Amino acid sequence: MIKFFRKIRQKMLTENKFSKYLIYAIGEIILVVIGILIALQLNNYNDALNKNDFEQKALLNLKLDFEYNQSELNKSIAELKEIKKNSFIILDNTGSKYQASFDIDSLLQSVGNVPKYYPQNGFLLDLINSGNLGIIKNDILRNKLSSWLPTLETLKDREKSVIDFSDDFIRYIIKNGSWLNSDEKTNDEEITKIRFPKSGFEINNNDLLKNIEFENIVENLIVYKSLLLDRHEKCIELNKEIINLLETEIKK
C-alpha cells in the first residue's frame, strides 16, 4: 500500500502536477491521522474493557474476603456477649450474694477466654501494595476499603490489651484456685478431649467468690471486653457497608 501511494506521488511530480500533488499529500496525511485516531480509540476501548474486567474480578474477590470477615466477626461478637453474660453471673454471686448451690467451675474457662479475630485481607493488601486500589471506580467504596485496615488495627490493639489482662486472671486462678476443677466442668471440646485427672488438692473454686480481689478482676474483665466488643461492632458496621457497596458495583 505504501509503495502504491509512493508511485502515485512520483508520477504527479514527474508530470509537474504540483497542486494536485499537494492536495493528494494533504489527503494522505489526513487519512494517516484518521487511522492513528481510530487505532488509539480501539486501543483505549480495549484498555477500558480490560480495566472493567479487572475491576469486576477485584470486586468479586473482595466480596469473598469481606463475607468471610463478616462471618468471623459475628462469631467473635457472639462469643464476647456470652463471656460478658457469664461474667455478670459470677458477679451476681460474689461476697454477700454468695450461695453454696452456685457452681463457678463451669464458667471460669469462659470468663478467662478472649476470642481472637483473624481477618482475610489478602486481596485488599495485594491491591494496595501493587498500587491498583485505584481500579475501583466508586470513590465511596475506595475510601471505605482504605479505612478498613486502620479500623481493624484499633480492634487488634484492643484485643492485645484484653489478652494481657486476661492473662492476669489466669495467673490469679493458678495461684488461688484449681484449673483442673474447672476443666472437669467445661464444655470446651479442646479441653475435654485431653481427659485431665481430678485435682489432688481439696480446693473449692467457689471460695474465689468471697474474695474482693477476684470480684474486681472479673469486673475489670467485663470493662475490657465491653471495649473490645465495641471495636468489633464498629468493624462489622464498616464491613457491612463495604459488602453492600461491592454488591452494588458488581451488579452494574
Average pLDDT, all residues: 86
How much helix, percentage-wise, in residues? over 70%
The structural class is: mainly alpha
First-last Cα distance = 44 Å
SSE series: HHHHHHHH
Number of helices in the DSSP assignment: 8
Strand proportion, as a percent range, falls in under 5%
> Based on DSSP secondary structure assignment, what is the total number of beta strands?
0
| Largest β sheet strand count, sense and barrel closure | none
Shape: rod-shaped
Residue windows where pLDDT falls under 50 for at least 5 positions: none
What Rg, in angstroms, do the CA atoms define?
35 Å
Keywords:
252 residues, mainly alpha, 8 helices
Word description of this protein:
This protein has 252 residues and is an all-alpha fold. It is 76% helix and 0% strand. The protein contains 8 helices and no strands. The two termini are 44 Å apart.
Brief account:
76% of the residues lie in helices and 0% in strands. The protein has helices at 2-14, 18-91, 105-112, 122-129, 139-176, 179-185, 189-192, 212-251. 21% of the residues are buried.
Topology:
Elements lengths: L1 H13 L3 H74 L13 H8 L9 H8 L9 H38 L2 H7 L3 H4 L19 H40 L1
Helix pairs in contact: 2-3, 2-4, 2-8, 3-6, 5-8
